[in-house]
Amino acid sequence: MVASAVLALSAAGCGGKKASTGGDGGGDGKKSLKVGLAYDVGGRGDKSFNDAAYAGLQKVQSDLKLDVKDIEAKEGESDNDKIQRLQLLAQSGYNPVIAVGFVYATALGKVAPKFPNTKFAIIDDNSVQQANVSDLLFAEQEGSYLVGAAAAKKSKTGNIGFIGGVETPLIKKFEAGYVAGAKKVNPSVKIQIKYISQPPDFGGFKDPAKGKTIAQGMYDQGADVVYAAAGLSGTGSLQAATSQKKWFIGVDSDQYQTASADQKPYVLTSMLKRVDTAVFNFVKDVGDNKFQKGDQRFSLKNDGVDYSKSNPSALGDLSATLDDLKQQIVSGKITPPEK
């Protein structure tokens, strides 16, 4: 269920204090990092959450000259499988280790205390409070508020949709922000809300067929804009939007960039969740001996979330409205709800 990547990263140029490994002609030695990363449900290639993490690793590779190696996980794995993977990475000298997604919380809670000298990061969870764990958290409701406003403003029917992959507290944050943003610009807007699966079934993040069927149903019932916070399943929702010539809003990554030529005209915007920034900054901070334990929060204020402007012909003058709302959120005048 969870695809994993192990990245053997040997970096010179991480900056800061470096461990000496012999002469490199530069006066202070190179620091070697071996970084392990485990993807969330859907794995790499979901064009969404996991691919945002991968983009961060690509930046690590290009900017810090580090090598990347992927290891796939198996279908339907348990917490014990995750424990064994994180343990294996730590035992093999991978440090730091990044767990992409809250599904790793239980496993990390058991593994991190056993390896106090290994630095860990987990995305979307802060239940693991350990001296060697950094919790990378996002204000998803803020970015979702902006795309909700975009949806309601763009809609000609006054009817929009929200598709969540799995009904968890995390995805409810996306929903809450989206609904609030939509109602800000159109208090009478109708919002269709559906989730693909319920915990403990996390298959809703990797079921494009169901994502397509649900979006199709929303369009059939009058929606002309649908926001899919559903990982890989969102690719199916985009297919439905394209066939119906309706609007689609992507999530996490800029899904206009990975859409096919026939799909691009229907991608209104995407809610950007900068997992790439979080991954890169974490690795760089470890290399710079600037590791921080506990909550690290990414919001509109520090460019941790945003909305994409890759399709200006679709957004039109909406950008001015959204940028104004963005500034009101940053200044504290508007506080999007989390639930």
Automatic annotation (TrEMBL):
<dbReference type="InterPro" id="IPR050957">
    <property type="entry name" value="BMP_lipoprotein"/>
</dbReference>
<keyword id="KW-0732">Signal</keyword>
<keyword id="KW-0472">Membrane</keyword>
<dbReference type="InterPro" id="IPR028082">
    <property type="entry name" value="Peripla_BP_I"/>
</dbReference>
<dbReference type="Pfam" id="PF02608">
    <property type="entry name" value="Bmp"/>
</dbReference>
<keyword id="KW-0449">Lipoprotein</keyword>
<dbReference type="InterPro" id="IPR003760">
    <property type="entry name" value="PnrA-like"/>
</dbReference>
<feature type="domain" description="ABC transporter substrate-binding protein PnrA-like">
    <location>
        <begin position="39"/>
        <end position="335"/>
    </location>
</feature>
<keyword id="KW-1003">Cell membrane</keyword>
<protein>
    <submittedName>
        <fullName>BMP family ABC transporter substrate-binding protein</fullName>
    </submittedName>
</protein>
<comment type="similarity">
    <text>Belongs to the BMP lipoprotein family.</text>
</comment>
